[in-house]
C-alpha cells in the first residue's frame, strides 16, 4: 500500500488535528499484511472512525478503488483535513462530523478501522471535541474504544471485518473477551514496540 | 456530502426519535465533481441502497432529472441507468445547507461538504 501525499497540510493545522505518527503507520502496515484477505472480500463500504488527518482511510482508498470510503471524527477540523487528504490523493471520500458511528444506519460497513484515543488518562480528560479527543482514552485508555465495541455488531455487515489498534496498557485480552462475547473471532495481525509503547493491531470477524 | 452517504445517515440516536430516516435535505450550494465511473462498484452498491430515498434526495436538490423511481431488473446491463446512478450517487455533492430529522425537526448543518451530526448529551437517548 502506498503512503498518501501529505505535503498539502499546513504544519500549524497539526495544533488541532492528530499528526500521523507510528501508530497511524502501524495500522496501514496491518492492512497491507491483510491485503489478500481484504481483496478477496471486495469491500463495498469502508469506514474509518476518528480519522484525524485522514492518512489511513486515504491509504485504504488508494489500494481499493472499488470501495467507497467514509470517515467520521468528533473534531470538525479533522473532518476537513481528512477530506482534503483524500482529495489530494484522488480518493473519493465523504467525511462526517460525528461521535463514533452514532448516525449511520445498521449493517452497512464491510470494513471498519479504528485507531482510538488509547492513552491512559483521568476520565475527566476524555470526551472532548478538540485535539485531546485524539489521544485521551480515560480509564485503561479504553473508555472510547469500549463504546465503539458495543456498536460494531450492528454496524458491520455479517461478513465484515473490524481493525483496531491498541497498546498493551489497554489490556488487549479484555478487548478480545468482549468481542468474543459479541460473537467475533479475533487475531493479532501486527505488533511493534515504539519507544516505551507496545502497539498492536487486532482484527475481528464473524 | 454525496447522496450515497445521505442514504446511510439517520438521526435515530436523538432521544424519542424512532427511525430518524430519511433526513430531509436543504441545499444552498451543490457542486458536481467528476469521479471515475466504475460499473462493477455500482452493481454491488445499488442493491444495498434505499433507492426511493436516493430518488427523493436527488429531486430535492434539483438533480433527479431522468432518474427512474425504481431500480429495474437487470439494471447491471443498462449503461444509461448506471451512468445516471453514478452521477447522482458519487458526483453530486451538497456543499452547504442542512439536514432535518423527519421526526424531531432537529437540523444538522452541512458546511464545506461536511455534515455536523453531533448532538449534545441531553439530546441523546
From TrEMBL, chain A:
Gene3D superfamilies the record matches: Vaccinia Virus protein VP39 (3.40.50.150)
Keywords assigned by UniProt, alphabetized: Methyltransferase, S-adenosyl-L-methionine, Transferase
Keyword hit for rRNA processing: no
Domain of life, per lineage: Eukaryota
Transferase keyword on record: yes
InterPro entries per UniProt: DNA_methylase_N6_adenine_CS, Euk-Arch_PrmC-MTase, PrmC-related, SAM-dependent_MTases_sf, Small_mtfrase_dom
Domain Methyltransferase small: start-end pairs: 38-122
Alphabetized Pfam families for the sequence: MTS
Organism field: Loxostege sticticalis
NCBIfam families in alphabetical order: hemK_rel_arch (TIGR00537)
Name by which UniProt lists this protein: Methyltransferase small domain-containing protein
Similarity remark: Belongs to the eukaryotic/archaeal PrmC-related family.
PROSITE patterns (alphabetical): N6_MTASE
Automatic annotation (TrEMBL), chain B:
CDD domains per record: Trm112-like
Listed Gene3D superfamilies: 2.20.25.10
Gene Ontology cellular component terms for the protein in this record: nucleoplasm; perinuclear region of cytoplasm
Chief site of localization: cytoplasm
Keywords: Cytoplasm, Nucleus
Pfam family, one: Trm112p
Superkingdom of origin: Eukaryota
Location in or out of the cell: Cytoplasm, Perinuclear region; Nucleus, Nucleoplasm
Similarity field: Belongs to the TRM112 family.
Protein name as catalogued: Multifunctional methyltransferase subunit TRM112-like protein
Species of provenance: Loxostege sticticalis (Beet webworm moth)
